What we know:
About 30% of the residues lie in helices and about 25% in strands. By secondary structure, it is of the alpha/beta class. The strands form 3 sheets. Strands 1, 2, 3, 4, 5, 16, 17, 18 and 19 form a 9-stranded mixed sheet that branches. It is globular, with a radius of gyration of 21 Å.
Amino acid sequence: MFDLIIKGATIVNETGTFQADIAVADGKIAEVGQAASGKAARVIEAAGQYVLPGLIDMHTHFQAPFMGCLGALDFYTGSIAAAFGGVTTFIDFTNTKPGDSVLQKVKERREEMEKAVIDYSVHAKFVEATDELIGEIPAIVDYGCTSIKMFTTYRQEGVMIDDDGLLKVFAAARKFGVLPGIHAESNAIAEYNIQNFKQQNLMGWKHFPDAKPPLCELEAVQRGILLARVTGSPLYIFHLTSSLGLEAVRAAQNNGQKVFAETCPHYLLLTKEYYERDDGYKYVMSPPLREEEDRLALWQGLADGNISIVSSDDCTYSVEEKTMFLEKKGADYQCDFTKVANGVAGTETRLSLLAEYGLHQNRLTLPQLVAALSANPAKLFGMYPEKGTIQKGSIADLVIFDKEKLQNVSAKELHQNIDYSIYEGREVTGWPVMTIAHGKIIVENGRFTGERGQGSFVKRKPFAY
Ligand code: URP
Ligand code: ZN
């Protein structure tokens, strides 16, 4: 007797698609094949539907104080929004400040995450690299957090690490099986431009992308790649946005370096013209939106495998938070892009946007979609094959995906806790209709059926060279 049988669906793994039944027992996949004759507490007839491994969103910022704001989602509401988007595991970040013990921050963040409805893990954020902090890395790895995030910018926010720090962390990462990653923007270029723009009173939304142009990304990507090469460390580039950055990543990969990159739906769908709008502040995220040419290059990079992952970088702010530090000018705001909290929502719409603009526009196949959203995050971040694949013995984290379901993206219907969506009004074909975590149905027919705190901490394995 099984707990659940999903009958007659097309199963999609990163390696291909096939038709089979899936039988689930004790939260694991017990059989993939002809389970139809077995009995189960619940049988789902899924002919014509697609079943994907539960998505992994390895880049979220829930409940994260940043630029004076708190964000609209905590780990409970954020994980529900993610679950509606077919996500069954997310990885968020420590909120490390100078002077903090990173190990302690990892443990605190794990505790904050306990209310999540899906599984979770933590990237350890290093903002400095004292001997003491480097000495914590083996214990952080033992604890199950095998990835590190560093910022090459946001000096004024107190989270930027210097080059000496990058080198020290990279060297330790290599030694202890950690995948280090960087938010790659040159702080020097950004600060230099912003100072000049301020003097010329060019603080409107439309000037934001010019303050942090592709060269700003390229400088930090190249520096990260070179410093990683010096130490023999692998390197992960968070939210790559530009064709120039992509070329640098591709060159390093062709040179045999273990460099991996992610991009996000907003960089694949939107361009800098959005900053011309009166509500351009809603699109202020870092790095900024780019040109059409960059957008198309990112799709190509994804199709070619130079970009491994599409994460959401979900950092959801309400209009009130986005505008809280702006001065009022009549009914409008006095524009100043440096006063707008950086970040956009995205974990709930990631799969459907990729289905519409990737799959249905023939840029990606279904297995490529699964690679970018599920299998590659599991592999790079130490969770494969327990997660990221549909095979006997894996955790029964599954999404039933209706590839042909038409849906209008609307903030009213989403669960992101804000009253706008940067994709408002877009028609997408393809929507997750059921999310199953550890064999339990947590989203069905547009309803959340899970429980607060039912997610668990994922102890991740060291990065596999
Ligand atoms: O704009 C963004 N990406 N916000 C989240 C924090 C960061 O910069 O990574
Ligand atoms: Zn970032």
